[in-house]
User: What shape does this take?
Amino acid sequence: MMWVALSLLAGLTVLGFGTREAVIQHRLQREGIRSRGLVIRHHMSRSDGDGSPVYFAVVEFVDAQGSRHAFQSGSSGVKGLPVGGRVPVRYLPDAPETARIDLIRRRFGDVASLLAVGSLSTAAGIWMLATGR
Assistant: This one.
């Protein structure tokens, strides 16, 4: 029964994060300010599965007021995002911490991956609950 509760809790939590990211992405498309970012480095972390390294681009950009900000990409991978490379960035006015890389595949991937993992985990919990496992 503990696994059912954990699966449901984890799934619903990840679905919440996916929904939050979808709302932020929608607001960025509607109200966001465009800027050009520069990939300044890649942050490496270990994946949960096989322990192989996963890389996230760290991007620096200048907002409309001339202040510099840096953020880490929400999705992994460095293909097409080399250090020193330029990337389009979008952020909400007066909230540069909302910055995201403004590439369609990144925007879609950030939302879709969270919603997929959350849905699978929630479905697994419901399945375990329904089958009594």
